[in-house]
Structure formats: C-alpha cells, structure tokens
Amino acid sequence: MAAPKKGRSASAQSRPGRALVLILIAIAALTGGMFASGHTTPRLGIDLAGGTSITLTAKNEPGQPNAINKTNMDTAVDIMNRRVNGLGVSEAEVQTQGSDNIIVNIPKGTNSKQAREQVGTTAKLYFRPVLTTEVSGADKSATPSPSTSNSSKATDKATDKATASPSSSSSSSVTPSPTATSQGRAVTDALKADSSPSAGSSASSSPTPTPSGSVDPATAKLQAAYTALDCSNKADRATAGDGAKPADPTVACGQNGSGQWQKYVLGPAEVAGTDIKKAGAVFDTQSAAGWKVTMDFTSGGSKKFAAITGKLAQQQPPQNQFAIVLDGEVVSDPSVAQSLSGSAEISGSFTQTEAQDLANMLKYGALPLSFKESSVTTVTAALGGEQLHAGLIAGAIGLALVILYLVIYYRGLSAIAIASLLVSAVLTYVLMALLGPAIGFALNLPAVCGAIVAIGITADSFIVFFERIRDEIREGRTLRPAVERAWPRARRTILVSDFVSFLAAAVLFIVTVGKVQGFAFTLGLTTVLDVVVVFFFTKPLMTLLARKKFFASGHPWSGLDPKRLGAKPPLRRTRRASAPVDTKEA
Q1: CA 408, 410, 414, 415 torsion: positive or negative?
Q2: Side-chain half-sphere exposure of 155, counting CA atoms within 13 A
Q3: Rounded distance, CA 200 to CA 198, Å?
Q4: Nearest to 251 by CA among 307, 314, 325, 178
Q5: Share of the chain above pLDDT 90, in %
Q6: Measured between alpha carbons, how far is 131 from 182 in angstroms, rounded to an integer?
Q7: What whole-number percentage of the chain has pLDDT above 70?
Q8: Coil, strand or helix at 522
Q9: Cα torsion 262, 263, 269, 272: sign
Q10: Cα(284)–Cα(281) distance, rounded to whole angstroms?
Q11: CA-to-CA distance for 440 and 422, rounded, in angstroms?
C-alpha cells in the first residue's frame, strides 16, 4: 500500500508547472478582458473623482404634522438608494443627517445628473379625472393646439390595441380667454357634472353648489385658485394644488403637445401610484410616439382603473380625459373611449432618458415625504487626491519595510514572496478595473486602506509556509520532502486565518453603509486572492525551486541553510558503527 501512495505523491510533486500555467493564463485572460472593455483603470469614488453633494430637507405634509419621523426618513433613504442604483451610479451615498436632513453624495459619472434629478423627486402619482382645462397665461396668445392632451393614450393589453386616443380640444382652448366670471362658472359646472361619486371616491369628496344657488366655500376657493393660476409662471406652477388631499379636487398645470402650458381642474384621485405593480420604458416601433412608459396595475388597481375609465368613457370632452399627475404636474391627459383594465401607458414627446427616469421613479415607488434642496455642493477631487497621495506613500513605505524584512530574514526565499506579492497586486488591480462597470464598484480612500492592509495578510501567508518548511529542515529533512511535509500544516493555518479575515470583512460589509463598505469589500476580495495566489503560485513555485541546487543544497543565501537553522543530523548518520572484531581473541 505504501508504494502507490508514494507514486501519487511523486506525481503531484512532478507537476507544479500546471498550476503555474493555469494562474498565468487566468491573469492573461483577465488583463486582456480589461483592455478589451476599455476600462483600464478602476472607477473612482466621490472622494477621489469629485462629484456633487446634495442636502435635502424634509417638509411637513399638510394635515400630517408628525410625518417627519425615523421610519419615513429611513424609507426615503432606501427608495433614493434604489433609484440611484437603478441608474447604475457607482458609490453614491444616501444617508440621514439629524432628524430631517438627507445627504446624497453622487460621484462624477454619466448618470450623475440624472441621479440628482431623481433623488429628491417625491414621485407621487395619481390618476385624476379632468373636469376642465384651458391654455394658460401668456400661452393664450399663441396659436392654440389642436389637442389639449399631451399626445398620449391609454391602452389595454388584454385587447392589445389602442382604446383611447388623444382628446380633441376643449372649447376654452380654441376661443379667446374667458373672463374670471366665466372661468368660475366653468369650474362650478364641471363640479356639478362630476358630482356623482365613482367607485374610488365618496360623494362628499367633490364639493357642489348648495341648493340655494350659492357656492360653498370649498368650491369658491377652487374657483379662485383656477382663475388666478397662470401656468406659464414658474412660481405658480410650483405652488399649484399645494395642500390638496388625494380625495379632494385640485388645480394643476401641464404642457400640451405643442409645448403650451395648460391649467386644469381635476377631480379626486381615483388610482394612485401604489396601485402600479411594475413600470418600464419601451420604444414604440408601431407608431411615431417614440419612447413610452408602460405600467401594469395590481389586481386592486386594475379594478379602480376599469371603474374610472368606464365612467369617463360616457362623458363629453374634456371630461372624458383623465390626467396622470406626477408630483402635482400633469404629465399626460389622454381621453378614454371605453373601459380599460390591467395596464396603461404614458406616451408623448419622451426622450429615452425621460422615459427611463419616469419608469424608474414609478418602479421604486414614491417617497413618503416631500423634500427641498437646502444646499448643493460641488466636491472637488483635490482633497481626496492629497489624501490618496499620502495613503499611497504610507502603503509604499509599508511595502518597502515588508520586503526589507523578507530579504534580511528569508534571503533567497524573499524572491518567492516578492513574486507572489506582484501576482496578487496584478490580480487585485485587474479585478478592480473590471468590477467597476460590472457591479458598480468604485475605489475610494477606505478601499485603498483595505488594499494596504491586505499586504500584511498576504505576507503573513508566505511567512507561515516558509516557517513550516524551516521546521522540517530543522528536523533533519532535505528540502524537497520538507516542502511537501510542510505544506499540509501550513495550508490549514492559512485557510483558517484567511477565513477569519474574510468573515470579518463580510460582517463589516453587511452591517455598515457608505465608504466603510468599500474597505470591507476590498479586504474580502484581497483575502480571497491571497488563497488563490498561495495555492496556485507560491506553493508550485516553491516546489520547482526546491529542485534547484541553490536552494536544495542549503546555500547560505537561500534562507534554508541547515547550519543557520540549527538542523539535526539526518537519522541515518546517528547510527553508531559496529565495534571491530578482534581476530586474535576470536
């Protein structure tokens, strides 16, 4: 039984070149992939590349004085993170500061501008029936649009055809500007027409004129708001409908297909954004609509949508339209020809970016709070560059000290350690460059610190292996068997040590946020690479060099000199010669 075991051992020892060839092929393939992808340098975080830091301050909602609380703030942070990650922005940081502030750090990148536009957008979506609408303010003097809609339509996927078309213009959009009295009458008449409740609202949600003919205060307030609203004025657009609850009628602004600003009186919200199950941006190849946003409703949302579209299909323009209202602004107002259910789409003059942005916000949900930008600061890379420079100097000094120690103490063995460190460094750099576009990894200062710490972890593995070999030589064994006997014990120690380091990095990555995760990720990555390098490079290289005379003979500069190590004489030399036989006595 001993002979086959010895044969297998000899076979394993005679093929260390296979492992070396394997790791060299892997390095060549990864390096080639790096150059082929065009990403030859790691992506940098905001502290190294610069970027934008935004401070968002939460605002109390009307009627909800206690809305700003830890639960809502944490929910807002989570939604903002998902929105930014959905855009592929790497190393973006979203975290709370104090009780009502959220800090968003966005590094420079192709999507950083989009991210800034999305993080503070509340994205509260409602489907409201249109009660009345007209071209607003300075746009009245312009040539009226042939349609008051935003060139949008609703579709029913069950029939796979368009069932609603752009609405025709209302009389108010093609006639001279009405007076304040006629505008107020239009609001009152519209509210009368909408006084019958729908499936999604109560009868009390729409104020109606009193029997005596006088207008109740809520309707009068709505009339005054509609009359005074000038949607061509940015300040008016920003405050239109402020304080309105979903169950109340409100006023709003939106742009029609000709770019003119329309003002609307809208009925109570019948369908909310929370009734949307999923949303996506799709390019419509069947029409000239271009990019559009498709939405699939939940089962409850589908029923609500069918109810409101069934009701609107029986009305006359413009009251057969429903407005899709996002954060108080009408983004689309399609007309309805029949009851719809299941899904809808928003189409119009969308660019690809605009459609993807809207779909992204609808997909990840509305923020529970409204926010305003308190400050926007441009972060330069100068400070981070100085810190990186100082960190690299510290790392170079540490690496030089490690190499100096290895050369003085291990002499010839230090060449194996230095070569292994170089292989580990190449693998780390190439993987960091490839992981940037692959998973959004970005190199920041803590990540650089993790890479510097990894130098000590990698060097520790070599030292463990070398010391095991020296122990075997001290026992009187020659180098080749000493390497093979030392490896199993060194391997166990290295695996246990690296497992503990990787476990610590994994826990740190899970329980922390922001830049600390960069440190944990880099530490975990380099720990895994340490195992790969030791198993596929250091050990096979040591096996090959053990056959060379310089190391096998125990040269004083090899680091394996038996005399310097205090080796015991080989066991066969400790046997005493038999005493000579005295022939005379015999």
Answers
A1: positive
A2: 16
A3: 5
A4: 325
A5: 18
A6: 15
A7: 73
A8: helix
A9: positive
A10: 10
A11: 26
The per-residue pLDDT for range 485-535, each reduced to its tens digit, is 999 999 999 999 999 999 999 999 888 766 788 889 999 999 999 999 999
Q: Which of 88, 28, 87 is nearest to 441 (CA)?
A: 88
Query: What DSSP element (H or E) covers 97?
Result: strand 93-97
Alpha-carbon 520 to chain mean position: 17
Would you give the distance in Å from CA 529 to the centre of its chain?
A: 25
Residues near 279 by beta carbon (within 8 Å), at least 6 away in sequence: 293, 294, 295, 296, 358, 359, 362, 363
In order of 64, 466, 468, 488, the CA distances from 413 in angstroms are 71, 8, 13, 19
HEC-encoded secondary structure of 175-207: CCCCCHHHHHHHHHHHHHHCCCCCCCCCHHHCC
| Mean pLDDT of the region 258-262 | 83
Burial 306-340 (b: 16+ CB within 10 A, else e): bbbbbbbbebebbbbbbbbbbbbbbbbbbbbbebb
For residue 540, report the phi and psi dihedrals to the nearest 5 degrees: -60, -40
- Per residue in 370-387, pLDDT (tens digit) is 888 888 877 776 666 777
Tokens, residue 488: 């199993």
User: At 225, which amino acid appears?
Assistant: A
Please tell me the distance from the alpha carbon of residue 462 to that of residue 530, in angstroms, as a whole number. Answer: 10
Strand partners, 290: 284
Task: Tell me the β-bridge partners of 95.
Answer: 103
Structure tokens at 85: 């990650």
Rounded to the nearest integer, the mean pLDDT of the chain is 76
Above 60 in pLDDT, residue 110? no
| Burial of 396 (C-beta count, 10 Å sphere; 0-12/13-18/19+) | exposed
d(C-alpha 292, C-alpha 155), whole Å: 12
**Max Cα-Cα span within the chain:** 154
Cβ–Cβ under 8 Å, residues 487 and 465: yes
Coil, strand or helix: which one is 334?
coil
- Both tokens of residue 560? 């394996």
- Of 195, 255, 254, residue with least CA distance to 219: 195
Count CB neighbours of 586 within 10 A. Answer: 5
Are 167 and 149 spatial neighbours (Cβ–Cβ below 8 Å)? Answer: yes
Cβ–Cβ under 8 Å, residues 354 and 255 = no
Cβ count near 515 (within 10 Å)? 19
- The candidate with the shortest Cα–Cα distance to 260, out of 130, 167, 142, 132, is 142
Token pair of 15, please? 């093929």
Nearest by Cα to 228 from 240, 243, 217, 244: 240
Higher pLDDT pick, 240 / 62: 240
If we measure between CA atoms, which residue out of 124, 269, 273, 127 comes closest to residue 206? 269
Cα-Cα-Cα-Cα dihedral sign, residues 69, 75, 78, 82: negative
pLDDT(168) > 60: no
> What is the average per-residue pLDDT within 218-225?
85
